[in-house]
Design brief:
mainly alpha
């Protein structure tokens, strides 16, 4: 019987420790903004986080719903399955850039309920990454 309070105490300490280590200031949430540098845009460090917080959240282009048949997570996935989504060196021909910059020919494809409006830095960052050759870096 004396072991039960000790076990409960240990479980409580473990749970508190787990919660504190899993929640840090670098956690991204839907609607957060990603700060893009002026050049040398990284797919891993900038584009993927942007897609995750602005496009791939529950109810939109996540792996479960795949709205509009676009699963945007994974470079190889969209590169192979949606060839016009990003066109290297040509943001104006890239469907994703047209949508993000709100310059799409078909207004029905604009983000219906974007969590936040995209910042100028984010739009410019996507454009720069495309101009830099849509590198998987």
């Amino acid at each position: 019987m004396k072991r039960i309070p000790v076990i409960i105490f240990l479980i409580s300490i473990f749970t508190i420790g787990f919660i504190q280590t899993s929640c840090d200031e670098n956690t991204l949430n839907p609607g957060d903004h990603i700060e893009f540098p002026e050049s040398d845009i990284s797919y891993r460090d900038h584009v993927t986080p942007f897609i995750r917080v602005q496009c791939s959240y529950a109810g939109c282009h996540d792996r479960l719903n795949q709205n509009y048949q676009y699963d945007l997570i994974g470079y190889g996935n969209w590169y192979l399955n949606y060839p016009n989504l990003f066109v290297a060196d040509n943001p104006d021909a890239s469907r994703f850039y047209q949508i993000v910059s709100m310059d799409a020919q078909y207004p029905t494809h604009y983000p219906v309920f974007p969590i936040n409006q995209f910042t100028e830095n984010e739009v410019d960052g996507i454009r720069t990454w495309i101009m830099e050759g849509i590198k998987d870096n």
